[in-house]
Amino acid sequence: MKSRYDLSNYPLWTALVTPFDANNQVDYNTLHSLVNEQAQANNGILLLGSTGEGLALSSAEHKCIVETVCNMQLDVPIMVAVGGMNLQDQSEWVAFCNTQPIHALLLGSPLYTKPGVVGQTQWFDTLLSATDLPCMLYNVPGRSGVSITPQVLKNLAHHKNLWALKEASGDIGVFEAFRKANPTLAIFSGDDGLMPYFAQAGAAGLVSVAANAWPKQTAEFVRRSLAGTFPNLFTTWTDAVDSLFSVANPIPVKVLMHVQGKLSTPNLRPPLTHLELPCTQAIDRANTTILSWN
Fold first, then answer.
1. Known binder of ligand: residue 51?
2. Is 255 annotated as belonging to a binding site?
3. Helices 59-70/87-97 angle, 10° precision
4. Which residues pair with 62 in a beta bridge?
5. What are the residues whose beta carbons fall under 8 Å from the beta carbon of 272, sequence distance 6 or more?
6. Within a 13 Å sphere around the CA of 12, how many CA atoms are in the beta-carbon half?
7. 166 classed as catalytic
8. CA pair distance 233, 239, nearest whole angstrom
9. Domain 7-229 falls under CATH 3.20.20.10
10. Minimal CA–CA distance to 250: which of 48, 95, 92, 88?
């Protein structure tokens, strides 16, 4: 696997939001600030995932965002999402990513089409074979419409660059089935609030939405979850994290980051809109709780 980082040293990856200005164009000045904040917290950075509204951005914007962040020459690893349902397009995107100084790829399930075991295996096999970068598969049936099955992981086990899986079904039973199917695979929780439970089951870390708003606090949350010696983590974080998913992600976290002053606007690309969250009481309360948490 080609990476100058030992990715096992990065148990927290922030699924970075994409900031927009008043004209709903990518705000690159704010992007710089957000990336620097994550780097200061020593968090890995995931670009163009569902939290980053990757599917709502143009190919030109994808490339510009990746090039902009790569040119910052950070001291933390960068992972880039690969998602959609057109294999040719995604293969071309992987080819572009191979030319950039990034350190990992997130390979999402094909959207909408609901392929079975054979189709999923062929999809991931093609993308894994198109790169030497460490790759994290992404199981998110709530968005893709289909679950990755344990058999798919078995079918792909021969790939040396199959490094990890982001498990976001919210089902600890699914997590356990994946561990049995591919025991050497690093499995990351894709649900912030479930991290303490997934850590007890052997999770390697978290791919986080909450870390956008609370980078240092979320890093400490992950550290304590993995240590397994801090009681009441789930109780402490549940209400706060749940407030970030009261409507479709990333609406609440962008509204919160606007309240925090991290974003100049809470704008999202259609069909998402911050107008879905007219009341900020819950996220304001969550912000107070987490910023005072220790």
1. yes
2. no
3. 20
4. none
5. 53, 56, 248, 250, 251
6. 27
7. yes
8. 11
9. no
10. 48
Q: Strand locations in 175-281, DSSP E?
A: 186-189, 205-208
Q: Which of 10, 166, 254, 262 is catalytic?
A: 166
The answer to whether 193 and 241 have CB atoms below 8 angstroms apart is: yes
Kindly state the helix (H) or strand (E) to which residue 257 belongs, with its residue range.
Answer: helix 251-260
Asked if residues 66 and 73 have their Cβ atoms less than 8 Å apart, the reply is no
Reduced 3-state DSSP string for 130-154: CCCCCEEEEECHHHHCCCCCHHHHH
Phi first, then psi, for residue 279 (nearest 5°) are: -110, 125
The structure's pTM equals: 0.95
Contact 141, 147 (CB under 8 A): yes
Pick the catalytic residue from 2, 10, 112, 138.
138
Taking 50 as the threshold, does the pLDDT of residue 1 lie above it? no
Residue that is written with structure tokens 């407030």 in the block: 243
* Residue bearing tokens 């893709």: 144
SS3 214: coil
Helix, strand, coil in percent for the chain, rounding step 5: 45, 15, 40
Is 10 one of the catalytic residues? no
229-269 per-position pLDDT tens digit: 777 777 778 778 999 999 999 999 999 999 999 999 999 99
In 78-191, the DSSP E strands lie at 78-82, 104-108, 135-139, 162-167, 186-189
Q: What is the pLDDT of residues 192-242, one digit of tens each?
A: 989 988 999 999 999 999 999 999 999 999 999 999 877 777 777 877 899
Per DSSP, the three-state class of 13 is: strand
Closest CA to 163 of 45, 238, 235, 79: 79
Please calculate the CA angle 141-144-149 and round it to the nearest 5 degrees: 50
